[in-house]
Amino acid sequence: MTMKNWYSGGALILLAVLFLALTMLSGTLLTGARIDLTENRLYTLSDGTVNLLRAIEEPITLEFYFSEDASSELPQVRNFARRVQELLDEMTRRSNGGLQVRRVDPRPFSEEEDQAARFGLESVPVGRTGDNLYLGIVGTNLLDGVEVLPFISPAREAFLEYELARMVYVLSRPERPRVGLLTGLPMDGGFDMQTGQRREPWAIHDQIDQMFEIERVSRSATELPQGIDALVLVHPREIGEDLLADIDRFVLAGGRLLVFVDPLAEADPGPDPSDPMGALTADRHSSLEPLFSSWGLVFESERFVADMGQALQVSTQQGRSTVRHPAIIGVTRARMNPDDVTTGELDSVNLASAGALSLSEDSGLSLEPLLWSSMQSGQLDAERLRFLGDPTELAAEMAVTGNSYVLAARLTGPAPSAFPESNGNESGEINVIVVADTDLLSDRFWVQRQRFFGTVLLEPFASNGDFVINAIDNLLGNADLISVRSRGVSSRPFDLVEALRREAEQRLRATEQRLEAELAETERRLNDLQQARGDADLTVLSAEQEAEIDRFMEQRIDIRRQLRQVRRDLDQDIEALGTRVKMINIALMPALVTLFALWLGWQRRQRMRKSRGQ
User: Which tens digits make up the pLDDT trace of 445-489?
Assistant: First the structure.
């Protein structure tokens, strides 16, 4: 073997050894290191989390309880646990020593398992032997403060950073902010008079209770609790003048207010909760007069905004296709304020029978819209919704103005007092957020309760809860936690597909209405023919009736064929759009690389020709 071959073989062996050494070193030294190339930097700690970590003054300890043996046959759970550990490690590195993390394996019959049970961590039986799987976190500080995530569901990985940042946020404060809550709705669950059992509290009520110390305010009270940091009013009805005057004093003195009013609150049980029919006829609108008038805020408490541009699909009857409901709308990111920390990173907020907000000409306040309707909207009387059978009727009744309506807004600036004589001050600077809807707080408009191995988990399908917590946090002056929470949802609507669906639905609706009209006309003619016969035996059809029925059957077959064709065209349009998008995603980058390579080759040949010519 020649010396050259020895050198070549030795070089290959050396490269192989170097490759293995670098691989082993990278696995050891670069554990957890990554380059985040996702569009929204989903795997990078947000600035809000970093700020919270750097603000830790007293040490905080997070204990990550995870069952190694019980998860041995659950690779997805183990991968998720590794993701949790990496995130905890990254938070530890960015905390400058303020955060400590411990990994705990609660083996069966061990002291660690007893600790997990004592902290209230939830175990899930897995495998044939029924071993208990723990996947939770316990946070503690030096002041005996304890925060617990009983079980971290892999389905909520998108909210993991927020949950951990919230835990750090709560443990780093000696006391939780005190929030006064006055509500005319059964947000705390209450007692179901029909079933004789207690209802579960609303999800948003539990979230507020977890984040803040709630001071409940009765509508019959004469003054607010002393020392509250913010006030939340939900469906404020039948409030006495003394309490209204104290609310006015609180706001003008710099107190922060979040208020939810509604032209028609669906969750309002009425004056008698034991009478289910009473809620249908009772007044269910709310406002905050006379404070609104003193601020120059215009809110028509008996008219709602109908919005075809953001109408959500609802099912009115079992077995029938869904229809767009102009009163139930999903406000998308395009119609949220991107510059306000309350709404800047949310994806969607669902509302129902929401009102409109505006300022009078003589108001000295600034109104900053947070949520607004589309240009395909108008206003209708709220009474129209009480016994509404077909939501599509609203589309024909509404007069589209071509303007959008403000559904939620921030009010700032100088405002006069509504009770100057009793309060002793004539004006003050206010900071208020007003939402013209209360239904967005109800579970059915934004969250589903799911069971995961016997554990009840909340699975949000809209950002209503984020919006409310963000608003309270912002009024309390904390923007760091808001920026973390807003990263929870990363899905984006497919606007082109949605436009195709809406166009096809309009064609379907017109065809369905024609079918129903022809059906009603045929039934009317059959009744007329039946009454004109006067025969004793009405079960025998005349020739004219049989011909009429045959004609209707043929029409119905033809219309059904048209409906199928419309649906087929819709599917073809969406499939064609999807195919084009796939072709662009799959073929565009290789094509660009190929063109770039050809261009480099051409450039190289040009340089070679020039060098030869010289």
Answer: 999 887 665 566 778 899 999 999 999 988 887 768 766 765 544
Residue 383 counted as domain residue:
no
- Specify the residue for token string 């035996």: 537
User: In 3D, which of 120, 256, 234, 149 has the Cα closest to residue 188?
Assistant: 234
For residue 517, give the amino acid letter: A
Domain assignment present for 330: no
334 within a domain of the structure (yes/no) = no
Place of tokens 């919270």: 52
User: How many distinct structural domains can be found in the chain?
Assistant: 3
What share of the chain has pLDDT > 90, as a percent?
Answer: 42
Rounded Cα gap, residues 595 and 593, in angstroms: 5
Contacts 24+ apart (CB under 8 A), 146-154: 146/119, 147/171, 148/119, 148/120, 148/121, 150/120, 150/121, 150/122, 150/455, 151/121, 151/122, 151/124, 151/452, 151/455, 152/80, 152/84, 153/452, 153/455, 153/457, 154/76, 154/77, 154/80
CA distance 36 to 397: 50
CATH number at residue 61: 3.40.30.10
Residue 216 reports pLDDT greater than 80? yes
Q: Are residues 369 and 473 in the same domain?
A: yes
- Alpha-carbon distance 229 to 255, whole Å? 7
**Count of C-beta atoms within a 10 Å radius of residue 190:** 14
Domain extent, residue 61, equals 47-166
Name the band, by pLDDT with cuts 50, 70 and 90, for residue 395: confident
Are residues 56 and 151 both part of a single domain? yes
C-beta of residue 185 within 8 angstroms of C-beta of residue 441 = yes
Per-residue pLDDT tens over the stretch 148-186:
999 988 877 777 888 899 899 889 887 888 999 999 999
Range from 214-228, 232-246, 491-505 carrying the lowest mean pLDDT: 491-505
| pTM of the full structure | 0.62
Helix H, strand E, coil C: the string for 223-266 is: CCCCCCCEEEEECCCCCCHHHHHHHHHHHHCCCEEEEECECCCC
Instruction: Check pLDDT > 80 for residue 507.
Output: no
How are beta strands 197-198 and 146-149 bridged, if at all? unpaired
Q: ω before 150 within 30° of 0 (cis)?
A: no
Query: Strand (E) positions, 272-401?
Result: 297-299, 303-307, 311-314, 323-332, 348-352, 357-359, 366-372, 377-381
Determine the longest span between alpha carbons in the chain, in angstroms: 118
Residue with tokens 């399908």: 461
Q: What angle do CA 139, 144, 148 make, to 5 degrees?
A: 30
Separation between Cα atoms, residue 57 and residue 310, nearest integer Å: 46
CATH number, domain containing residue 255? 3.40.50
Residue 260: closest CA among 338, 316, 206, 181:
181
Q: Which long-range contacts (CB under 8 A, 24 or more apart) does 37-45 make?
A: 40/487, 40/490, 42/158, 42/487, 42/490, 45/90, 45/91, 45/94, 45/161
Give 298's strand partners: 358
